[in-house]
């Protein structure tokens, strides 16, 4: 039978999807990208915030219509929304034939087979006892691949439901991570992007100490992967040892994704975030001093309960002062089951939107300023694809992470394949993308 897959949400969800694809491919199911031809469609949902839930629900409804217009026989839903809503999801959307919890991703073949024999099927278990690694069938041929080093979270931020969905923090063994990195390299990967809910906590549960610097060192020693990039490091856990490893290891890119969420100490306290404004500013100063080319990426939340005009302006002043390279913003989403849900001083939606727009408008100017500094420079670019309509190659340099940052668009007189590294002279820049020509 032909199975179609739709993976929504973050890169961690993509990895879950790829593990399920591997199980189904090994069971001789045919994987198709054409939903119209699929007899079974599996949707890996996101349930992190309201907008993500709405996207998941709309996708389920859209695919369910194929039972009338296409070849679809069964619609299976898994992922964070399935885990979070469980019975409620089936009640709200009877067009779903099966709901599979995060604990069952390695049993997806059994779930598919059972759903074909039953009218309705549900499977949930203890996700904390589920293997968080396994064979993957990569969902595209990109030379940049995400590599999950742990699962779950112990931080208990007051706005976040992830610990209730994905459980406590669990590190993978270093050996299993290195083995997967070697497999990804053998499959053609040129860049691995280390991800987790909190990469900076890696090893503290399994080895009783922070092992991220050692992991980086071993990845460089035991693979020949040219680029290693780090996402989701909490500022209060960025140690001098980690900074030194990034500085001295030429294969670790001078790029760090460091979500701060806010800068006002009273807001950080209400968010139950570790650290303070002083700690955040100190680590930014250290990173820039020790690694002059460092690209710092962060995310912030606007409109959190109790964020007064004064506290929001403090955040704006911080963004203006520090001039971080990459800043993404989200309006606070009120999530049931979180500590922040019942907090007083909730912010009106229109004020959240105003603050979001003001912050992103300021950051766009800062980003353009940073981008223009690249004009005239020659950058190493990892080619990812060719756009025949524009006649341009598309790739990324060290300053742009996959999926979240901009691209480098470039031309050249010789053919370039996906996965090739080329030297590109940057000739133009806008707020998020760079443009240039190959240096022969």
Q: Give the CATH H-level superfamily of the largest domain.
A: tm_1862 like domain
Instruction: Just give the CATH class of the largest domain.
Output: Alpha Beta
Q: Regarding quaternary structure, how should these chains be classified?
A: single chain
Q: Roughly how much helix do the residues carry, as a percent range?
A: 25-40%
Q: How many distinct domains?
A: 3
Q: What does the overall shape look like?
A: globular
Strand content: 15-25%
DSSP summary, beta strand count: 19
Distance between the termini: 49 Å
Structural class: alpha/beta
Going across the major beta sheet, what is the strand order? Answer: 2-1-3-4-5-6
CATH topology of the largest domain: pyruvate-formate lyase- activating enzyme
Largest sheet: 6 strands, parallel
The average pLDDT is 95
Low-confidence stretches: none
Structural description of this entry:
The chain has 440 residues and is of the alpha/beta class. It has three domains: 2-129, Methylthiotransferase, N-terminal domain (Rossmann fold); 144-372, pyruvate-formate lyase- activating enzyme (Alpha-Beta Horseshoe); 378-438, OB fold (Dihydrolipoamide Acetyltransferase, E2P) (Beta Barrel), CATH 2.40.50. 35% of the residues lie in helices and 22% in strands. It has helices spanning 11-26, 50-64, 66-69, 80-85, 87-92, 108-117, 162-166, 174-186, 212-222, 240-248, 265-271, 277-290, 309-322, 349-372; strands at residues 2-7, 30-32, 40-45, 74-79, 98-100, 121-123, 144-148, 150-151, 170-171, 191-195, 227-230, 252-257, 295-302, 326-331, 378-387, 392-396, 408-411, 421-429, 434-438. The protein has a six-stranded parallel beta sheet, with helices on both faces. Strands 7-10-11-12-13-14 form a six-stranded parallel beta sheet. A five-stranded mixed beta barrel has the order 15-16-17-19-18. Helix 8 (174-186) runs parallel beside helix 9 and helix 13 runs parallel beside helix 14 (349-372). It is globular. 43% of the residues are buried.
């Amino acid at each position: 039978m032909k199975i179609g897959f739709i993976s929504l949400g973050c890169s961690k969800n993509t990895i879950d999807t790829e593990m399920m694809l591997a199980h189904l491919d090994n069971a001789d199911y045919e994987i198709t990208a054409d939903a119209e031809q699929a007899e079974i469609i599996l949707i890996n949902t996101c349930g992190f915030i309201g907008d993500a839930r709405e996207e998941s629900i709309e996708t389920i409804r859209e695919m369910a219509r194929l039972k009338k217009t296409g070849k679809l026989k069964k619609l299976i839903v898994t992922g964070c929304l399935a885990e979070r809503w469980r019975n409620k999801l089936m009640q709200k959307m009877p067009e779903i034939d099966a709901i599979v919890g995060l604990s069952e991703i390695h049993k997806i073949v059994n779930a598919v087979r059972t759903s074909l024999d039953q009218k309705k099927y549900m499977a949930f278990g203890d996700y904390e006892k589920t293997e968080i690694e396994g064979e993957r069938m990569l969902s595209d041929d990109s030379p940049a691949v995400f590599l999950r080093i742990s699962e779950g979270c112990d931080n208990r931020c007051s706005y976040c439901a992830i610990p209730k969905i994905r459980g406590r923090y669990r590190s993978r063994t270093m050996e299993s991570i290195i083995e997967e990195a070697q497999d990804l390299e053998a499959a053609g990967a040129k860049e691995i992007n280390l991800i987790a809910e909190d990469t900076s906590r890696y090893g503290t549960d399994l080895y009783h100490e922070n092992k991220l610097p050692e992991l980086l060192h071993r990845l460089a020693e035991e693979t020949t992967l040219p680029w290693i990039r780090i996402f989701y490091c909490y500022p209060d856990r960025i140690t001098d040892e980690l900074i030194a490893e990034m500085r001295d290891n030429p294969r670790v890119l001078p790029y760090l994704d460091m979500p701060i969420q806010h800068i006002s100490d009273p807001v950080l306290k209400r968010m139950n975030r570790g650290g303070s404004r002083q700690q955040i500013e100190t680590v930014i100063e250290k990173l820039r001093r020790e690694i002059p080319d460092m690209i710092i990426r962060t995310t912030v939340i606007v409109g959190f309960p109790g964020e007064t005009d004064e506290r929001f302006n403090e955040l704006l002043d911080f963004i203006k002062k520090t001039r971080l390279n990459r800043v993404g913003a989200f309006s606070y989403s009120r999530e049931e089951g979180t500590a922040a849900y019942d907090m007083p001083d909730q912010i009106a939606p229109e004020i959240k939107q105003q603050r979001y727009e003001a912050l992103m408008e300021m950051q766009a100017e800062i980003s353009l300023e940073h981008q223009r500094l690249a004009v005239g420079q020659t950058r190493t670019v990892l080619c990812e694809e060719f756009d025949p309509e524009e006649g341009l190659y598309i790739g990324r340099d060290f300053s742009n992470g996959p999926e979240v940052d901009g691209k480098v668009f470039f031309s050249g007189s010789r053919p370039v394949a996906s996965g090739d590294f080329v030297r590109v002279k940057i000739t133009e820049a806008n707020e998020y993308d760079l443009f240039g020509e190959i240096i022969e």
